[in-house]
Specification:
2 copies of one chain form a homodimer.
Chain A (H helix, E strand, L loop, with lengths): L33 H15 L2 H4 L5 E4 L7 E10 L5 E2 L2 E2 H14 L4 E12 L4 H18 L2 E10 L7 E12 L13 E5 L5 H9 L17 H8 L7 E3 L5 H13 L1 E6 L7 H10 L13 E5 H12 L8 E8 L5 E5 L5 E3 L13
Parallel strand pairs in A: 5-6, 10-13
Antiparallel strand pairs in A: 1-2, 2-7, 3-4, 5-7, 8-11, 8-12, 9-11, 10-12, 13-14
Helix pairs in contact in A: 3-4
């Protein structure tokens, strides 16, 4: 077979995409919500189809070379395009390490190695790049991971925006660990490790898009030690996810769909900083949809819930941990429901369209 | 310890960077040549310092979990920002898979898994994204790798340029394999698997920057099968590298420096397509500095050279393979020298500054 036989003949392929938005990428495709899901399914799953991707997690697992070993590998990748590159509480470097460390950690895995590829815009201040590298180095040390390979490309001015960083994380995972989006069960409690919406509001504030001042800082942090504190107590954990783009609402909708359950949240127990609540009220945002970069959702049998809260609260990154809801059998459609403060209920849907572009 | 203690205090760090170019990133920092090397050493090596990175290869190795196993893992990462995204002979998707497959392959490793993260510009045609995904899928099948994890972000129009793709490859490598840039030895032959400069000239042509028409197609291709054909014959290979950004000249300079040897090239034996030669002459380019994306340089003891040429030529991707030079002891400074057609010699220096931005 000649290699030219393997080159694509695009005429043979039909276009399966719904011709929405005049067949163009719009910001909503990067929201992390329904449109992102549609894009991934209609293009990437379709052509890259394999059992690793089909699991629909933010990470993939592959076996150790020695099949008898009790550990396997777990890998995850993320592009980071946050704007601005420095914001209260963090920067794109801390975000790039934390985001990938957290994706590995919510699989139950222990992150070990990171690769980082940089796309730099011509004209970027070297001093800024240095600050970002320092921040990545410090965050990597905090998480106990090593940055073992990298790449740097430069795009001409106006073809990129200062710095984009893609990171890939590689970690180890016990063969018997089954912490996945499809494992939530009726009777489980839903726990969040702290206040929601901090990252999104801090980034908006840094862009001067709030129209007022706020003291909110991003929560961006590597969560692997906090998470391992829970797992090393041999506590039964069914699902873990970090509610980043699309916020708690979108993450819980994904879990409800994958596990085919109803998740009922209690509005009164949702931990939200007063500044975040105020900002959301003034802007008409729902904090449930605002991105977090240093929070984890843990879904576990109710008998473990108080133990988990205790362990989380013993660590500075988990001091505001709360039980925020419970899992029950789905009636007909899996969904997320909120019991409101005034005693009603409302459906909490997945984010559709884009609320806050370039948030991570 | 509070986590805030771990946040960077930039005031404590001095800026070690030479304040060239007014302290800004310029296109030359992405050339793959001397300026890229300076940037990596002054920022990334400085702050990410660890033994994996310090080896200075395009890949990093890490041990299997079972230390007694005879295989280890090898990982590599690359950002791809080629402009335009479609060019004669390939596209950014085929490039993103091939580039990473080839980086793993030149370690002597067998690539297994790829992760891909996409940065899309608002307004990108979905049809173009689909074509790219198809091309990635076909190239992955050709190379026998699976795309196991991914991420998609969208930047607002004008903040990126159509599509950027970062790929990370993971492969397996025999514990005893030592194919590295520092292994070239006096008496070795220098082999190239085919014609040089095709990719760079094809991309320039696609940008209409040549000022004339040419039929040159990019050589972009995954080389893992070609390379494994050589290695599975148990032929002693000292160095393998794919001469991408900065071309054959820059790659050989890196090898000469790492191995502390002199490499002498023979101009008459350098395989160059007539169209590439003509284009270079008209534009004043030296084809030795033009990027390749489907070529490998192999440095081996002279007694194996003819066998390697035979094996390479038996595969369509290696049909123009040639012995192009030899390795000798360095006098004082390691360098690359060219014996010219008219019988003289000239020094072939590393690329400094940028010749062709956005070439890969």
């Amino acid at each position: 077979m000649k290699t030219s036989d393997l080159k694509p003949d695009f005429s043979k392929f039909s276009c399966p995409l719904p011709l929405i938005h005049k067949g163009q990428i719009v910001l909503g495709h990067g929201s992390g919500g329904r449109m992102t899901k549609d894009l991934i399914e209609s293009i990437f799953y379709r052509y890259f189809d394999n059992p690793y991707l089909r699991k629909g997690n933010d990470f993939a697992e592959f076996n150790n070379l020695d099949q008898k070993a009790n550990m396997k590998w777990v890998v995850s990748t993320d592009a980071h395009i946050v704007k601005p590159i420095f914001f209260p509480g963090g920067d794109i470097g801390r975000l790039a390490i934390s985001g990938t460390v957290n994706d590995i950690s919510v699989s139950g895995g222990i992150p070990k190695f990171i690769t980082a590829s940089f796309i730099l815009e011509e004209g970027l201040q070297l001093r800024d790049l240095e600050k970002i590298a320092i921040s990545m180095s410090i965050t990597a040390k905090e998480a106990g991971v090593e940055i073992i390979a990298g790449d740097t490309k430069v795009a001409e001015k106006g073809s990129a925006d200062k710095v984009f960083i893609s990171t890939t994380g590689i970690g180890i995972l016990n063969q018997n660990t089954v912490i996945r989006g499809d494992q939530a069960k009726a009777g489980d409690s839903v726990i969040i490790s702290g206040t929601i919406g901090d990252h999104g509001i801090a980034v908006l504030a840094a862009r001067n898009e709030l129209g007022f001042r706020t003291k909110v800082e991003s929560d961006v942090a590597p969560l692997n030690i906090l998470i391992q504190n829970v797992l090393k107590q041999n506590i039964e954990v069914h699902v873990m996810r970090d509610p980043t783009r699309g916020g708690v609402a979108t993450t819980l909708n994904e879990i409800a769909l994958q596990s085919k359950v109803t998740i009922t949240l209690d509005e009164t127990s949702m931990p939200i900083k007063q500044e975040v609540r105020s900002a959301c009220e003034m802007l008409g945002f729902d904090p449930l949809y605002i991105a977090n970069e240093g929070k984890v959702i843990i879904i576990s049998p109710i008998i473990h819930a108080e133990d988990i809260i205790q362990i989380l609260q013993d660590h500075p990154l988990g001091k505001d941990a709360k039980i925020i809801g419970e899992v029950s059998k789905a009636d007909s459609t899996p969904r997320v429901i909120m019991k409101t403060k005034i005693g009603g209920t409302r459906i909490v849907d997945m984010l559709s369209g884009e609320m806050l572009p370039r948030i991570c």
